[in-house]
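Colleagues,

For the teaching module next term, I've prepared a clean inverse folding example: a structure given as tokens, and then the sequence designed for it. I'd like students to try predicting residues themselves before seeing the answer, so please don't circulate the second half yet.
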């Protein structure tokens, strides 16, 4: 639940709710998330679309702005399900000659009226909680497909296991999307960094790039995870300060830029923001 909703239910201020949520987390009774809280047991629980769509909205917008700059005219890409990838799709509607393969009804809807974008949907069974097509039909429709990039989101991201999700059917389709792409781009806001969930979708060694937002200064877990991901060769692009598109680097940003290793051989060292959007902060990644 969001802090706003909690405050409404218990009829008190968000400041009071935020303080109580910290106390409840210390007792192990819930897990804090950006802008809200969830019941403990993140390895098996998954929020539905209505809950996800209200969390970290500014961060998702900034991430989508930056990630859209990775897509060029005439490319063929795959885009997985999720609220962040839905934001990306809204920006891709302006890229001419683009072909987008997706299992997400939300992504397809965002591109439905884009005259110069061709949308190809997988088959499969509709999973209502996130409006995605899953199952053997979705996976089989991706066999033999080859595209330049895959854009995926998930429930958690760690350097140890990579991208993960709480649903087995979703993870299987995401793995099929990854197999179809030459490069894998993960879109994950800082609240997912350091969070591990039940089913692995993309191991760290297969992640080409991570597009994220600037973690708050007190979020040591996210900062540590970013460093660990960079140490394993993942290219990292940070969209603005504290999730704000076009923001200047926050006070904690400079130390995290130092010492980050460079991108994998054969990939460009930086990510560029989408034309017409605010400039994102791209981590200066260089080999130690």
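(Answer key — instructors only)
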């Amino acid at each position: 639940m969001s802090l706003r909703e909690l405050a409404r239910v218990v009829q008190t201020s968000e400041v009071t709710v935020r303080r109580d949520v910290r106390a409840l987390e210390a007792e192990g009774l819930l897990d804090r998330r950006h802008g809200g809280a969830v019941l403990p047991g993140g390895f098996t629980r998954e929020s539905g679309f209505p809950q996800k769509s209200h969390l970290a909205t500014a961060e998702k917008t900034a991430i989508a702005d930056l990630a859209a700059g990775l897509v060029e005219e005439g490319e063929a890409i795959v885009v997985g399900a999720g609220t962040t990838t839905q934001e990306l799709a809204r920006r891709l509607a302006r890229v001419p000659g683009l072909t987008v393969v997706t299992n997400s009804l939300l992504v397809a809807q965002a591109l439905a009226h884009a005259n110069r974008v061709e949308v190809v949907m997988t088959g499969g069974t509709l999973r209502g909680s996130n409006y995605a097509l899953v199952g053997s039909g979705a996976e089989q429709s991706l066999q033999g497909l080859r595209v330049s990039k895959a854009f995926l989101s998930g429930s958690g991201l760690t350097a140890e296991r990579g991208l993960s999700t709480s649903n087995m059917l979703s993870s299987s389709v995401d793995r099929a999307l990854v197999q179809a792409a030459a490069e894998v781009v993960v879109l994950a806001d800082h609240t997912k960094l350091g969070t591990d969930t039940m089913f692995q979708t993309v191991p760290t060694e297969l992640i080409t790039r991570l597009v994220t937002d600037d973690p708050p200064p007190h979020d040591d877990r996210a900062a540590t995870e970013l460093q660990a991901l960079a140490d394993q060769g993942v290219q990292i692009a940070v969209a603005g300060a504290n999730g704000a598109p076009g923001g200047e680097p926050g006070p904690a940003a400079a130390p995290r830029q130092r010492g980050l290793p460079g991108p994998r051989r054969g990939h460009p060292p930086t990510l560029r923001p989408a034309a017409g959007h605010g400039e994102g902060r791209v981590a200066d990644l260089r080999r130690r």
